[in-house]
Amino acid sequence: MSRFIIFDVETPNRYNDRMSAIGISVMEDGEIVQEYYSLVNPETFFDPFNIRLTGISQEMVADAPTFPRLWEQIRPLFESGLLAAHNAVFDLGVLRSCLRSYGIDWKPYVRYVCTVQMGRKVLPGMKHNLDVLCGYYGIELQHHHAGSDSRACADILLRYLEDGAQTKDFIRTYSLQEKEMRRKEQMADFTYEIIEEIGVLSENAKGWRKELNRISWNNGPVKYDIRDWAPDRAKMGRGITLTEEEAMKLKELL
């Protein structure tokens, strides 16, 4: 497929079930042919952390469209090509929650590609944070601005394709079904943000990777984290988290 709908969302609070902004870049035959950006009124509260991260506050979105109004505008775009995002399961999860919260029926599932997954094959020795990749490729980035992030993701995707990555090898399916919703409800108070990807310790035959990362759980202090992750990051295994002091002690012991 030669038409990609690359998108990025920002969220207002720790629950990551509403969006406060969305950016969309449409890439067709290796060219950016359309860009879209909008603030979104999430009709919920903003956490101070998210305000600091995104620069978006309650006051800024007061006159912005709510998700149902926004969806009327962007649905044709989302149906016009293959979806793509950086750490796509996060953005797709927010989209799914918004559709559900407002009772909007769309599709049972969508197909997508994730530039984090692609990057691990194209650039296996690198960290795959968006800002790190933009620095590597010399791509301009205003990080955590949805419009800038989606454009940067599109530019990175183009680099990967130019380097020989085959889209068909990275197409995944993301469920929008109620069954998956119930699982998400059970984890409603459980959120995380990968602050830094440090390295991969091992990978099994099914593509699960034991990774060492620095992660903030439920917007708490950043800790070192060792655990197994599914190839699309939709699932994770049990792991261990370490404070900075514990990690340094472990290093001494080793």
Provide a descriptive summary of the structure in words.
With 254 residues, the chain is of the alpha+beta class. The chain has 2 domains: 3-185, Nucleotidyltransferase, domain 5 (2-Layer Sandwich); 191-253, Transcriptional Co-activator pc4, Chain A (Roll). 33% of the residues lie in helices and 28% in strands. The chain has 8 helices and 10 strands. Strands 3-2-1-4-5-6 form a 6-stranded mixed beta sheet, with helices on both faces. Helix 3 (88-101) links the parallel strand 4 and strand 5. The longest helix is centred in the middle third of the chain and has 17 residues, at 146-162. The radius of gyration is 18 Å and the shape is globular.
Secondary structure blueprint with pairings:
Elements: E1 3-10, E2 21-28, E3 31-39, H1 48-54, H2 67-78, E4 82-85, H3 88-101, E5 109-114, H4 115-122, H5 130-137, H6 146-162, E6 172-175, H7 178-186, E7 192-203, E8 209-217, E9 222-229, E10 240-242, H8 244-253
Parallel strand pairs: 1-4, 4-5
Antiparallel strand pairs: 1-2, 2-3, 5-6, 7-8, 8-9, 9-10
Helix pairs in contact: 4-6, 5-6
The name of the CATH topology of the largest domain is Nucleotidyltransferase, domain 5
The proportion of residues in beta strands is 25-35%
The name of the CATH superfamily of the largest domain reads Ribonuclease H-like superfamily/Ribonuclease H
What's the architecture of the largest domain in CATH terms? Answer: 2-Layer Sandwich
Biggest sheet descriptor: 6 strands, mixed
The CATH class of the largest domain is identified as Alpha Beta
In round numbers, the mean pLDDT is 91
Total discrete domains? 2
Order of helices and strands: EEEHHEHEHHHEHEEEEH
Separation of the first and last Cα atoms = 48 Å
